[in-house]
Amino acid sequence: MRTKLYKILVLIFFSGLLNIFLTSCKENNIQIKKITGKQEEINLNFQSDSAYIDIILPYKIKLQDEINTILCYNPRTLKREEGDLESSLGNLYADICFQKADSLFYKKTGKRIDFALFNYGGIRTEIPKGEISVKNIFELMPFENKLVVARLSADQVKSLFRYLEEKKEPHPISHIKIKMNANKITGITINNQAYDTLKSYFVLTHDYLQHGGDNMAFFKEPISLFNTEYKVRDAIIDHLSNLDTLHASLDGRFKITNQHE
Questions:
Q1: Contacts of 94 (CB under 8 A, 6+ apart)
Q2: How far is residue 146's CA from residue 114's CA, in Å, rounded to a whole number?
Q3: Can you tell me the distance from the alpha carbon of 43 to that of 77, in angstroms, rounded to the nearest whole number?
Q4: Alpha-carbon distance 63 to 69, whole Å?
Q5: Would you place residue 1 in the very low, low, confident or very high pLDDT band (cuts 50, 70, 90)?
Q6: Alpha helices (H) in 112-194, listed in sequence order
Q7: pLDDT of residue 42
Q8: 118-133 confidence digits (pLDDT tens)
Q9: How many CA atoms lie less than 13 Å away from 8 in the CB half-sphere?
């Protein structure tokens, strides 16, 4: 995980350097004809160059300050493996994304999102107890995935629920409650309304899943698609930065029941 975070920071750093270089060239009316490069193995024998270090240092300091910014306090460790079909971490993740995306979607379309679905495997690590920094969220969500709203047909929504029924994993969901026995879904409510098997629904997810990631093929050809251009990671960072203390819990939104419940 640290390796992935390091790669992200390196990319951010070099994109910043390239931008400065291109701006400088523009001011001097210079056109770039060719860019070449080569790989250098970095090991114990690698000799550093003080000239490059002097250039990099200010960016290194700036990136370190930004990545170590404290967002809020977390009173307990949050893990994705907490429950059979839901977790406090998954609930928090889905609810934050729903809140942020629904506001954007309503402003642009005048419509509301019905519910949200993300993938269990997309949560890459836990949120530790203590002060939560931007670095923790980069580790939690190292991908560049953006929130999208897909309007799914009635048949596509049925496929979505069959997928959840078969997988039996704690995929993060929001504004929906599902009951199932050992093998079959027995009850669904969406925004406190009974699930209508003949209705299309606006479903929030992210672009990786909308393209069929994690075998979620039901997202691939929606009736319509709205791209918020809002990264999942940024939504979480923005939300946590406005909190003093993080609160997350199980609420029974996806649970196994006995036959008579």
A1: 116, 117, 118, 172, 173, 174
A2: 18
A3: 36
A4: 10
A5: very low
A6: 134-140, 154-167
A7: 66
A8: 999 999 999 999 999 9
A9: 18
Buried b (16+ CB within 10 A) or exposed e, 168-191: ebbbbbbbbbbbbeeeeeeebebe
Q: How many residues does the chain have?
A: 261
87: three-class secondary structure by DSSP:
coil
Going by DSSP bridges, is the β-strand pair 70-74/130-133 parallel, antiparallel, or unpaired?
Answer: antiparallel
* Residue 53 DSSP class: H
User: How much of the chain exceeds pLDDT 70, in percent?
Assistant: 78
Where are the extended beta strands (E) located within 26-120? 70-74, 115-117
2 vs 223, higher pLDDT: 223
Residue 100 in contact with residue 147, Cβ under 8 Å? yes
- Can you tell me the distance from the alpha carbon of 133 to that of 40, in angstroms, rounded to the nearest whole number? 32
pTM, entire model:
0.78
What does the alpha-carbon distance between residue 46 and residue 234 come to, in Å, rounded to a whole number?
36
Please compute Rg for the chain using Cα positions. Answer: 22
The domains located in the chain, with CATH, are 2-67 (no CATH), 72-256 (3.90.780.10)
Sign of CA dihedral 247, 253, 256, 261: positive
